[in-house]
Amino acid sequence: MEGWYIEKGPESDVVMSSRVRLARNFKEYPFPFKMNREDAEKVVERVKDAILNRSIATSDYEFKDMLKMNPIDKQALVEKHLISPNLVNGRVASAAIISKDEKVSIMINEEDHLRIQCLFPGLQLDKAWELCDKIDSLLEENIDYAFSEKYGYLTCCPTNLGTGIRASAMLHLPALTMTGYIRGMLEACGKLGIAVRGIYGENSEALGNLFQISNQITLGLSEEEIINNVTNIGNQIINQERSLRAELYRQNPYRFEDKVYRSLGILSNARIISSEESFKLISDVRLGVDMGIIKNIDVAKLNEILLYIQSANLQKIFDRTLSPDERDIKRAELIREKLGIN
Amino acid sequence: MEGWYIEKGPESDVVMSSRVRLARNFKEYPFPFKMNREDAEKVVERVKDAILNRSIATSDYEFKDMLKMNPIDKQALVEKHLISPNLVNGRVASAAIISKDEKVSIMINEEDHLRIQCLFPGLQLDKAWELCDKIDSLLEENIDYAFSEKYGYLTCCPTNLGTGIRASAMLHLPALTMTGYIRGMLEACGKLGIAVRGIYGENSEALGNLFQISNQITLGLSEEEIINNVTNIGNQIINQERSLRAELYRQNPYRFEDKVYRSLGILSNARIISSEESFKLISDVRLGVDMGIIKNIDVAKLNEILLYIQSANLQKIFDRTLSPDERDIKRAELIREKLGIN
Fold first, then answer.
1. Where is this motif: RDXXRA motif of the pArg binding pocket involved in allosteric regulation (chains A, B) (predicted)?
2. Interface confidence (ipTM) of the complex
């Protein structure tokens, strides 16, 4: 385990990660939903060739053929947001090229021929964009993109038209949630062209108080403007979250400490734990760490735990199929191990 | 802190403590509820003299004058069951003579002129009776007891007539409680002349799954028969409790371990905790220790915590008056300190 999540990025007390993804398509092939098998294979080969035969970053890359991978390995990548469920369930040949540090993931023949995404810890949309842009330029040397002077990059879904960019940040907002101010924040974001959704939860509920903000508009603004917009809104939310945390603590420090420590106590002692409960407790513990109350746990360690307690990743770690009951037991075991308890 | 509770007695996986108390009265004075002040003072002086001027045990004795003690010190003794609320609220001069190890407590001018009680860890009613008997004999050398050939020792309340003995054991019965078998046990005890009541709770509810069994009959049986009866019933309950614990564990070891460890996690991490919650959690932790699941905590340590987290004892330890909110904070602090955490 040596991914981006073991680093601690800027504003990591509120921002878990930043992601930029670009949607791109080959000019010469139909969009994936109507392409034939032969064309799909050609697209996979050409992207593979363009990436793997060059050194575009310090990290190594791995080619993942969706047709050849077992379901648990694929699900493990979905859980880490490195590939999408759409890619797994594709109609034609599909693949992903993923860097060893899991900062870069290029999906081939998802909704578009290409989905280039870069993930960084903390609030680093500029860095993520920079790396995406570099990979994009490299691919463009070898690929003729579907591009219109009027609309920009052509994408399968019109919501991605233009820049094809989606810049998002995953925020941990326990104080906004506890105080109920989250509703006002969601409304304000909507008016500013920023989408907010809960992550990790079914039906997009905000499990673990984690919310993803992202741009709704891809057309009519430059990539830099979009990155700046999301970053600025992100910074405003960070400030609001921080002052609410400080206020909650000020109001009743013992109550605050009691909450985060109890959650730590349960998290580090449970022998059976669901992922839902883990997310909730980790949210409290993270808050305690961010506020300097809990001192011997690193936020990056919590990021790592959040990724690896998910069903498929858990089964990969223990290297066997686990029933739901077994997963709850092994999840508790993994958490204690990662927290260095036993 | 160096009381009986830091020792670990026989059957300590189920029995917290054994207590024997004898009710005795002077022949020459009216019972406390109708005696005058002068007589009350004489009784106090005579008992004080009979005990303090002799060496009856290895341990030192302290004389506690109820009229001179402050309310918190008196309440602290009540919480430890060394004196009764009746003694504190007495109409006339009253006192207690308590051994340093808190195994012996002699109340003077409670309901009867004398209440001699001996407390031992685990199931040791025979030892407690032996020590009571020794103290009783010593006192009888100097005091003419109210005694009738027909009824035996005369006591204020007819329920104590005869031997004047009450033999009781404090049992920790989480498995009987969890499984609901406790109801059947309570019924059976009633039929066998054994009273059962919850301890530490208001209205005698069984806070912390702690129950006290004691003899209902004091007349028509010898002291030894009474001690044996309570010990035998105690042993039957111990066996039932043990096999239910084993069965519960066997049915779902992970669920069992999860329960005791979660309670340990909360107990050792909380920053605010009520005494009610402490009792509940300590009950689970004790069960975990007794079952060999939790290894680095001693049962005697839990006994000690149970005594010292009570309101007045807590205030004595921190040497100041604490508001209810402060108590919940200091109680959490004391528990962590006693568990060796931080």
1. 327-332
2. 0.89
